[in-house]
Design a protein that fits this description.
Layout: H1 3-16, H2 39-43, E1 63-66, H3 72-80, E2 87-91, H4 94-110, E3 119-123, E4 136-142, H5 150-163, E5 164-177, H6 183-186, H7 189-193, H8 202-211, E6 216-228, H9 230-233, E7 239-249, E8 259-261, E9 265-268, E10 274-276, E11 282-284, E12 289-290, H10 293-302, E13 307-309
Parallel strand pairs: 1-2, 1-4, 2-3, 4-5, 6-8
Antiparallel strand pairs: 5-7, 6-7, 9-12, 9-13, 10-11
Helix pairs in contact: 1-4
The structure holds S-adenosylmethionine.
């Protein structure tokens, strides 16, 4: 039995008997006017953040949701994309697809606007998405890809890249680890399935996304997820896991490397009205300009007297240039 089989078995069990609080973090649930989330869907919230960012959904996209769980986020996406087949949700675990179908039927009773036909539930897995090349605007996955071993994560990211249209978006929420998780925990299939021991570090995770071809990554939020305490997990020191919400774009990787936005800004501190770095950035005096980390490092290095670079806020939702 492989670790993927163990994960499928684990999710079969929690589809049949919901396990409240399995992955979720303490955060304000996404409240949307006119949306009622059935209680059973909330119990089966097995995500570690959110992938539903309204600003990404204004153009009536076709959404492919990988690892449907109890259907909560499929319902939230359907809230924005109200047409038959707008949301395609994939899961290899029959019991999970059946639970999601039941939950979506309940949602239809509680939400007059919702038709279960807005969500198409399909058998499939992250390595073989049952849709053609370049056919999807938004792919989302919440707390699934962290379960995969690194080479499988790369396969899953490459498969997402295949199905996205040019310019399409991969929206993810996954745990990341403050430092590498020791091998004795990484080898524990049950902890891995529970999203507790497969997490990569931030750098490893973002580099895998870039290596799959994504030219821009935006960090929407980063917050504490779980503590692996040294007593329970046999560690020399406690290890904090954080949940990272990102949006990655299928755009070309610039010659000088991918752009990662973490909320840094550059501020011109000089006495002129503005500052032009001749690299595409014009900074009005005293006004923060959102920049990617690569540009932030370059400006700080080249103009330490003229430009202040602010720390990452770990929140960025568009508007930067680099
Ligand atoms: C941690 S749960 C997350 C569920 C959902 N995204 C949520 O936020 O509640 C992982 C989900 O991925 C599914 N899954 C497990 N292995 C998978 C695979 N190889 N490909 C796609 N989905 C998988 C599980 O059945 C489960 O529904």
């Amino acid at each position: 039995m492989t670790y993927l089989d163990s994960a499928a078995q684990f999710y079969r069990d929690v589809a049949i008997t919901p396990e409240v609080g399995l992955c979720c973090v303490q955060s304000t649930p996404l409240r949307l006017p006119g949306l009622t989330i059935p209680a059973v869907m909330q119990e089966m919230n097995y995500g570690c953040g959110t992938t539903v960012h309204p600003a990404e959904l204004g153009k009536d996209p076709t959404v492919l949701y990988v690892g449907v769980g109890g259907g909560l986020e499929a319902l939230q996406f359907a809230y924005f994309c109200r047409r038959p087949g707008a949301v395609i949700a994939v899961d290899p675990v029959a019991a999970m697809r059946e639970a999601a179908a039941r939950n979506l039927a309940i949602a239809a009773q509680e939400n007059p606007w919702f038709d279960p036909g807005f969500v198409t539930l399909l058998t499939g897995d992250a390595f073989n998405l049952p849709v053609p090349d370049a056919s999807i605007d938004v792919v989302a996955q919440n707390c699934l890809f962290n379960i995969f071993e690194p080479e499988d994560l790369t396969r899953a990211l490459q498969e997402v890249y295949r199905v996205l249209k040019p310019g399409g978006r991969l929206i993810m929420s996954d745990p990341i680890a403050r430092r590498p998780i020791p091998e004795h925990l990484r080898q524990d299939d049950r902890l891995r399935a529970m999203c507790l021991s497969g997490a990569l570090t931030y750098d490893q995770y973002t580099q895998r996304i870039i290596r799959a071809g994504f030219g821009q990554i935006e960090v929407r939020t980063k917050r504490p997820y779980r503590l692996l305490d040294r007593h329970t997990y046999g560690l020399e020191e406690n290890l904090l896991l954080e949940s990272l919400d990102t949006v990655s774009f299928k755009v070309a990787i610039p010659a000088d490397g991918a752009c990662i936005f973490t909320g840094k800004t550059a501020i011109y501190m000089g006495t002129e009205n503005s500052f032009d770095d001749r690299g595409g950035h014009i900074l009005a005096q005293g006004v923060p300009l959102a920049v990617c980390d690569k540009t932030a490092a370059k400006l700080a290095r080249e103009y330490p007297e003229q430009i202040m670079v602010t720390e990452a806020t770990w929140h960025y939702d568009g508007g930067g240039c680099c």
